[in-house]
Specification:
alpha/beta
């Protein structure tokens, strides 16, 4: 079973950028196989990674529900779904990407969710690392995969309110009965030393701070150009910071910073 990292945080924190940086960092820190899963209905992880997505799991499932007899004779719905999901996984030499797409529509039901869960779980078992970029909450994760989360990263901006909001996701994970190994807070676009008010707010949350990711002019340039994090130079301060975070959080990566 691979190591699963799930990221959550409200919109505007740069959560997807941090997720994209983690995918690149893992690919450069000795990870043999990395699966990126875009579980945010806004579906922009592919932009952060610099690739295109043809179809999402949501679109595939919806089509299957609308066309009850779409699966070929002799092939069950779960096998047919698994075939189509694997067919639309974006494959690169450094990572693969699966886009979950929008939440289920009115015509979707528990049976379809169960099919999706089994399919995604089976697919992700073939990877050493799985990076899940979630929506602001974690409901999508609880509906669409049964995988335990080894590391839950709550991304916040450098503001007291943002830190408190991110910390509520830890309680939400418990409410949704998501099995979590370690959980940490990451402050994005933050300069150190942190303001004492931020340090106090972090202490109040009870969620340990993994570290910070500093502002990076290179990322702003990528956003303007519409390119992904693999175009960043090797000495990108944000990329190096994310590598340090992963090395600190995951024992298998300790000392693996290239």
């Amino acid at each position: 079973m691979g190591y699963t990292i799930a990221l959550a945080g409200k919109g505007g924190t740069g959560k997807t950028t941090v997720a994209s940086l983690m995918v690149r960092a893992l690919s450069e820190m000795g990870a043999r196989t990395v699966l990126a899963v875009d579980a945010d209905p806004n579906a922009c992880l592919h932009e952060g990674l610099g690739v295109e997505v043809e179809r999402s799991v949501g679109e595939i499932t919806e089509e299957m529900l609308e066309n009850a007899n779409s699966n070929p004779n002799g092939m069950t719905k779960d096998v047919w779904l698994q075939y189509n999901v694997q067919r639309y996984v974006v494959e690169t030499t450094r990572f693969d990407l699966l886009s979950m797409g929008r939440p289920e529509g009115a015509g979707c039901y528990c049976y379809a969710n169960n099919l999706v869960r089994g399919c995604v779980d089976d697919l992700s078992r073939g990877y050493e690392y799985v990076v899940l970029d979630n929506e602001a909450g974690l409901e999508h994760l609880s509906r669409r995969t049964t995988r335990d989360v080894d590391l839950l990263v709550m991304v916040a901006d450098p503001a007291v309110r943002g830190i408190r909001t991110a910390a509520t996701l830890s309680a939400l994970a418990d409410e949704l009965k998501i099995a979590v190994g370690a959980r940490h807070l990451v402050i994005n676009r933050a300069l150190e030393p942190l303001d004492p008010a931020l340090i106090a707010a972090i202490g109040e949350t009870g969620v340990p701070l993994l570290g910070t990711v500093p502002p990076d002019e290179g990322i702003a340039a990528l956003d303007l150009a519409g390119t992904g994090v693999f175009e960043l130079p090797d000495d990108s301060v944000a990329l190096l910071a994310v590598k340090r975070l992963l090395s600190s959080a995951i024992p298998a990566l300790s000392g693996a910073i290239a």
